[in-house]
Every structure is written in structure tokens, then in C-alpha cells.
Amino acid sequence: MAKAPADKVALFDALVELFPDVERKGAGFPYTSANGNMFSILNENGTLALRLPVAERDAFLTRYDTTLNVAYGVVQKEYVVVPDALLANTDELREHFAVSVAYARSLRPKPTTRKKPAARKKPTTGQKPTTRKKPAG
Hints:
This protein is α+β, with helices and mostly antiparallel strands and 137 residues long. It has a domain at 6-25 and 39-106: Yope Regulator, Chain: A, CATH 3.30.1460. It has four helices and six strands, in the order H-E-E-E-E-H-E-E-H-H. Strand 5 (68-71) and strand 6 form a beta hairpin.
């Protein structure tokens, strides 16, 4: 499986570390999410995409002369491509990342798709576990 370039991962990690309440996830493709809503991802080419609200997204696209992110042939309408020069400028990118974090937290939480394992009851000390009896017949 392809992974994001190590130098870009280091820049992404440095950015995320500025936000102690944000957890970096993902091994091959680092990303961040809040309440089940992803708001940044670093792809295999080392391109960082940020999820931004409409007004900030339009301003970002104009200011940095960039485009919306495309993943698997589909345009991600809320994600902008962060130019490499901006990715390397953590101080400037920090402002946009903060907007992205706030936007993701404002979205409706997504329910988890993973099922929680059923809790097993353990016998109390000194008790034998109960067993089911087979029905007669």
C-alpha cells in the first residue's frame, strides 16, 4: 500500500501538534477528524486537503490559486488542496487548520459504524459460571 511521503508527513504532524485537542489518525494516509467528520487528509502524493466552510473555502481558493480536492475521481466539494508552499509554512497554515477544526466540530456528529463487542459477564469471586442446560428431547 502506498504511503504519504515522509517529509510531508513530518510537516502534517508538526501542524497537528499545535492543536493538543486534535488527534492525528491513520498510518499510510494521516488524517484528522472530529465527531466522526474528517477535516484533513494527507494523500499518497503528499497533497494535504482541508475541509473548510463555504466563505473560507472560496477565499482560500482565490488567495492561494488552488483547487478543490479530488479523491478517487470524485471532487470533494468541501475540501481544498493546500499548496506545498503553504504546507511548509506552519504559522500561516495554522489559521486555516483552526478554521477547519472549528468547522468539523460544528457539523452533526456521525454515528460510528463499528459495532461494540457485547460485554461478557464475569462470575463474582467464589462463584462458578452458570451454564445453559440443554432442553430435553
